[in-house]
Amino acid sequence: MSKSKEKLEALVMRRQGMSIKDIAKQLQVSKGSVSTWCQAVALTPAQQKHLLDRQITAGHAGRMKGARMNKQKREEAVDMYRHRGAQTIGTLSHRDLCLLGIGLYWGEGVKSRSGGAAVVNSDVAVIKIAKQWFEDCLGVSKKQFRPYLYIAEQHYGRSEEICTYWSKSLAIPKAQFHKPFMVPGKHKKKFENDSNYHGVLSLRVTKSAHLKYEILGLIKACSNQS
Hints:
By secondary structure, the chain is of the alpha+beta class. It is built from 8 helices and 4 strands. The protein has a domain of 130 residues. The protein has a 4-stranded mixed beta sheet with strand order 1-4-2-3.
């Protein structure tokens, strides 16, 4: 009798346009039983559309919830590895900084025969390390720095803002900066906020041909270790 009552209730709910899942949940029976009981009930087009819209909305909500959970997991992993990295590295010694600077210049420095020493990058953290390395390990004074900025043409109207950003970040007066160069063509990297774009900076050292030879000698010494 109980099953017969539940079946009748299920049929009424189905004719009202309820989903198999919701009926089973409300009657506390299996979805298989409800599906069997209601297989002869034909939903109207409006009821079918309503259930489909609900499925799409629920699916979107589920995806958004999953995306939030994945983002939280990524952030937790990043924080964990940052903490682990800080513990592993500790405080850089003078030798650590020297070797770090050599590796950085090896990858991002100007190594051509003509011109002086320079490190080129769009990441302010990289340029700040290069500046510290030049000063602490190679005896370069702040007055010897001559930064060159390369700015994509669509951001050229922000030249003053971008120059101020680098000047403050590196503690180098804007008077020492060369006039920015415009880079034609559309910048490929996309930013959520255009103000996050700061161009590419070449941290050059004036009258540094021999300094560059010294750096290349250090790089050669490191490469001979392999």
